[in-house]
Amino acid sequence: MKNNIKRFIKDIIPVLLGVLIALWINNWNENRKDKKYISNFYRSLKKEFKDTDKEIINKTPSQRILIDSLNFYSNNKNVQLITIIEKAGGVNGPLIKLNYWNALSKSKIELIEYDKLALLTEIEENNELLKYKRNKLLDFIYANLTETGQKEKILMKLMLEELIRTQNNVQDGIRKILKYDAKSS
């Protein structure tokens, strides 16, 4: 009986060691793949965020021109909102790119450090708020295109200023991620 137990132990130990080594190698390989995936993700996200930052920088001056035009024509009862918008070059807004974040958030979100995850979530929430405000602004514009009153012009100006504030919040979050990424590189 003792010999059977000894033989069993002698036979099982190499098998157990083999299984444990195989598991360790598999875990090591999975961790390596995850690190490569996250590294590629951050590289792509960084490019996307740099493009978005430039987009915000490029679009904000035209938004400010529209605000200045609304100020300039606010007391002129002969000028319609549509005319002011046309003279200012239209209603421009930046394209906020979150494609890589959206893809990762649906697959391997557990691989992201908490601090970065919190920042990315905040950017996404601000972007959703930005979309909401942009839609409200467009609804207002379409409903008041031919209006000439000071009230409508001031209200549109305030809506644009609020839109810019939210864009700046998105931009601040993006810059925090880019700085955070630069620190950890």
Automatic annotation (TrEMBL):
The organism's place on the tree of life at top rank: Bacteria
Protein name: Uncharacterized protein
